[in-house]
## 1
Amino acid sequence: MSAEVRDAEESEVDELATVWYQAWRDGHESVVPAELTRRRTRERFRDRLKAALAKVRVVGPVGAPVGFSMLKGDELNQLFVSARARGSGVAAALIADAEARLAASGVETAWLTCAIGNNRAARFYEKCGWHRSGTVVEELDTPEGIMRLEAWRYEKHLRQVRNDQ
């Protein structure tokens, strides 16, 4: 499978929402409160993708993406790959692309959060050079209001600070 990363297209929002919904449930359902799982619907993921489409990058043929990443400031905010594309290099291509975009925008230390207990994702981040820096309490926006969830925080230094002044 080609792991070429490209901008998401508006016509792909429904398929991306399905990828996100299925991959999120696979990685999170057993490690987060049932109430959060209930609130994380495919329609909610679709709304979030549509709102952030300009910051979404994907891998896969147009109309059939198999993974995506989303940035938010200096955070790799989302990274999800369909089960059928795992182990194919899609996630590695997406994380490398996100790191390059963050570095190009001037970010020196990028960060992301990972649900505590999502060990597959944690191993992947560590393999890519990210380091667990501690835990944080995330405030997750849901249609029913904010939910707080403790998560692992990972960081990666992307570039050296210039001291030539």
## 2
Amino acid sequence: MKLYDTARAPNPRRVRIFLAEKGIAIPMEEIDFGKAEQKGEAFSAINPLQQTPVLVLDDGTVLSESVAICRYVEELHPEPPLFGVDRLGRALVEMWQRRIEFHLFQPVMLTFRHSHPAAAKMGQVQIPELAESSKARTLDFLTHLDSELRKQPFIAGEHFSIADITALVAVDFMRPARITMPPLDNIKRWRGEVAARPSIVP
């Protein structure tokens, strides 16, 4: 197997953290977005969407979405379980993973893409109004998430999961997206505990 990675991008970081949590290593190749390597002929032949991460299996099969890659790794290495420990746990992780994707991760990414000069340099068409509305969505959801984290240690309940990985990457990417974290004590507690895990890589 081979993993195509991009060091500063949030989606590849999700996979790197997942792999570190599992304690496994996969050969990696860096795709430098700053040099537009994702648009080159060689990488475009692997993933026509020109995005990372991409996992190429030994038989040539290509997996090109972060959660799909993580699910595949979970099947190969089920311990520790990061998609839930039983039927209810798996359902809760799925629920929270989607909530975090739609209401936190995506709005943070949209804020960055539609307001940051680096995104403009990469050819992104920017809509300032979309950046502002996405920022507002992010802050609204964080207030809701803070109230949930008052009741449980991790995003989906009692156990660390991929939902925590996605949420941490989104919260950390608020800084380059220029979204100021409001003073939310439960999120502060959660982030401090999760960020201290040995698996949390840049």
